[in-house]
Design brief:
The mean pLDDT is 86. α1 packs antiparallel against α2. β1 and β2 form a beta hairpin. The longest helix is centred in the C-terminal third of the chain and has 25 residues. The protein has a domain of 49 residues. It has 74 residues and is mainly alpha-helical. The protein is elongated. The chain has 2 helices and 2 strands; from the N terminus they run ββαα. Helices cover 62% and strands 11% of the residues. Keywords: Membrane, Transmembrane, Transmembrane helix.
Length: 74
């Protein structure tokens, strides 16, 4: 797979974590963690899977894009 990354759009090298030999950007792991926490809390509070899943997906998406924008600025 070939990709083209411009220098101004690269994520800082220190914001990666090595997972199973693959460098994962920190913002992706943060989004997954927030999504999982929101999913579990809302499922325990509301006991409805629909609300928990949709809210977790929304929270993970917002965190993903917000943290990505933050790391691209840094």
């Amino acid at each position: 797979m070939t990709t083209l990354d411009s220098p101004s759009r690269k994520v800082a090298r220190d914001s990666h974590i090595d997972l199973a030999g693959t460098a994962w950007p920190l913002y992706k792991l943060e989004a997954v963690a927030v999504g999982l926490v929101v999913l579990l809390v809302l499922f325990l509070v509301t006991a409805t899977a629909q609300t928990a899943v949709l809210s977790a997906a929304a929270a993970a998406t917002v965190v993903w894009w917000a943290r990505r924008a933050y790391y691209l600025r840094a």
